[in-house]
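Human: I wish I could look at a protein chain and see how it folds. This is the protein in question:
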Amino acid sequence: MVLQDFEPFIGEHCETTATACLLRQLGISFSEPMLFGIGQGLGFIIWNMKTMPFPFIGGRIKTDSITKNICENLALQLHVKETSSLRKAWSHITEPLISGQAVGLKLDCYHLDYFTNKIHFAGHYVAMYGYDDKDAFLIDTKQQGSRVKTSLDSLAKARNEKGPMSSKNKSYTIQKLHPLPEIKGVISKAIHANAVDYLNPPIKNIGYKGIEKASTEIKKWFATSQDIETEFKTAAMLMERAGTGGALFRNFYRDFLKECLDILGTKKLYAAHENFKTIASLWSEISTLFTEVAKTANPKYITQSSTLLSQLSKLEKETMERLVNISF
């Protein structure tokens, strides 16, 4: 059973890619940075996960929230299903597919056949558009190949995995029951809400406070690492390209603000957009420094990274304070 004429969204981040595939079926088409911005996605977290040998550095808000925010802001109906039953979990996929709807899935990418970097990460998202008696047909990020497939057995394991960020075989579909609201109001509301949340982190490892904490935590990580080359190389890749760390999401928010400048027809966002150009480049510089750490194990690159993180904490806080105080 495969959806005919299914047009995938080619994206860089797993959740926005999966959700954009579902939206495209509804005739809703936005750029990935716009979806990220409407989803109030900008954030930060540093977290020592038991399933990873090094700290998890994330540049977005918590899992599941971006799609929820997108649907709320666009007046769409989000249907989320979870179950501990493998039988019911499979029916949660097959029922919408048979009716012609693609399905979003949250799972642990460790088990997916096409993933070569085997790290447990249960906050990964894909869109599923079909299956046969052996395989599931999925849309993942362009880094992973966009149109991919994995065995039904591996898919079941990935969906049912336990641990940090995991859900009970979570799947979701989206319905459009009303006309979309006016986009200017949507983006102004999303910018303000994202800034408010970013500036009020509930704990010190989130938001700008988390970035400042990361400036000291990476020194501890370097000092205790069991495999500097592999850990820092992987962290650099995740940060810059794979959809968890700071650089990719700061690129998104920079480009989101540029689109907003054009849509709103105001220069009020100009300074924030310029700041995010700098912010995005500094995050890319940190990922480059992490790569040098992996190659050389030279502590000077950790010291440089730490200094940049402290600068970024201040600059991001200042920029989000600017955004929260803008009246559109």
